[in-house]
Amino acid sequence: xxxxxxxxxxxxxxxxxxxxxxxxxxxxxxxxxxxxxxxxxxxxxxxxxxxxxxxxxxxxxxxxxxxxxxxxxxxxxxxxxxxxxxxxxxxxxxxxxxxxxxxxxxxxxxxxxxxxxxxxxxxxxxxxxxxxxxxxxxxxxxxxxxxxxxxxxxxxxxxxxxxxxxxxxxxxxxxxxxxxxxxxxxxxxxxxxxxxxxxxxxxxxxxxxxxxxxxxx
Length: 217
Description:
Elements lengths: L9 H24 L6 H8 L3 H7 L8 H16 L7 H11 L1 H4 L4 H13 L1 H26 L6 H23 L9 H14 L5 H11 L1
């Protein structure tokens, strides 16, 4: 009945929970040991599952983190969708980022930095991270359109969605690489960097964006 109304079935919920359990185990191992030093056997053991179960959910080691990527995508989009429509876009995106799963995963700053560096340096993981960003762009456009009085399928709205994703990605990568002081950075520093990135893009200058678009018509 629940599945018929569009809600996930109990079995699907269990599958999603297993995928996330594998992803969380992989994220912890990749950040602590590194990608190359972590085997599928290590991930399966950490997740408390058999190798057969691991391969039922993940075709290869590099697929283990995919649920983390997709959960971050979903969390940001869902949070932004419920923000007040009149809220400036920079503030709305920052608040959505703070409320979503992405920032919570940065709670252990040093471990999060190590994981982000692994994700950025391993081509197979980076490919899947970029694919998650593409999915976010497609999901963000309909959420952004009402805030900009734009068409979700227009080039301008899709460019705005892509710019937002790139800004957040670059800010997190920068945070993972850079040391700005003798002590570890905190989650607040991540927010400062993401806010800087969003302000630099002047994404709240929506009238100018539409004026340029109208001039081209």
